[in-house]
Amino acid sequence: MRRGSIVQLIVIGVLAGAVASAVALIPNWLPTSASREAGRIDFVFWFVTGICIFVFSIVAAVIIYAVWKFRAKPDDDSDGPPIHGNTGLEIVWTAIPTMLVTAIAIVSAIVLAKDDAAGANPLRVNVYAQQFFWSYTYPGFGNKPSVILRLPVNRSVVLTMHAKDVLHSFWVPEFRQKQDLVPGLTPTLHITPDRVGTYPLICTELCGLGHALMRSRVIVMQPDAFERWAARKGP
């Protein structure tokens, strides 16, 4: 390939990458992070997005260059010259995606392992899902019941999930993590809230006619405020 063609491909690739980067970075795609685990998950998101932009730039450059340089004339119905395989090129375009996918798998595995590791003295909360309602109890506080998930800021929390009837799914966008609830199973989810505030809790598994209304709230509080609430009688 001539040097001029390589330069043209690079220029097209850079422009395509710039457009893709603008689409990825300018809109505010993600909600505000409110947990330590969310920061790690966001890193994986942007790591994979960067790889996707890199691949997109190469593919877009080759397609645009081919359409520009090798398009057939309207009255040209002839076949092009036969092209034989290039072993070296085939090895390269197999090896590079393999390395990229392996890198994604390694980064994801590390983040999942860190997110699953609960800190010292975690707060344990039982989460119950049923059509079409969320409820919670706190074993460390005499199984105190609540219809709102209240959590202390900057403390490790382990949520033990219970589905009373059908499949449900626990998701707080600001925490980034999602956990399916299956009847008969008790999966756990580890979260460390790091931002005081009130956040929506959404069921993301179709669970019946009232699925769209199966919502709750998570209130992340200062530790002393949480202790006062937990010590108070009633929900």
For the record, the CATH architecture of the largest domain stands as: Sandwich
Low-confidence stretches: none
Category from helices, strands and their pairing: alpha+beta
The CATH superfamily name of the largest domain is Cupredoxins -  blue copper proteins
> What shape does the CA trace take?
elongated
Q: Helicity, in percent?
A: 40-55%
Q: Averaged pLDDT, please?
A: 91
CATH class of the largest domain: Mainly Beta
How many individual helices?
A: 4
Q: What can you see in these coordinates?
A:
The protein is of the alpha+beta class and 235 residues long. It folds into 2 domains: 3-69 and 86-116; 123-231, Cupredoxins -  blue copper proteins (Immunoglobulin-like), CATH 2.60.40. The chain is built from 4 helices and 10 strands; from the N terminus they run αααββββββββββα. Strand 1 (123-130) and strand 2 form a beta hairpin. The longest helix is centred in the N-terminal third of the chain and has 35 residues, at 36-70. The chain is elongated, with a radius of gyration of 26 Å.
Structure in a nutshell:
The chain is α+β, with helices and mostly antiparallel strands. The protein folds into two domains: 3-69 and 86-116; 123-231, Sandwich (Immunoglobulin-like), CATH 2.60.40.
Q: How would you describe this structure in keywords?
A:
alpha+beta; 10 strands; 235 residues; five-stranded mixed β-sheet
Indicate the topology.
Layout: H1 3-25, H2 36-70, H3 87-116, E1 123-130, E2 133-138, E3 144-146, E4 149-152, E5 157-163, E6 168-171, E7 178-181, E8 188-191, E9 197-203, E10 215-221, H4 223-231
Parallel strand pairs: 1-5, 4-10
Antiparallel strand pairs: 1-2, 2-3, 5-8, 6-7, 6-9, 9-10
Helix pairs in contact: 1-2, 2-3
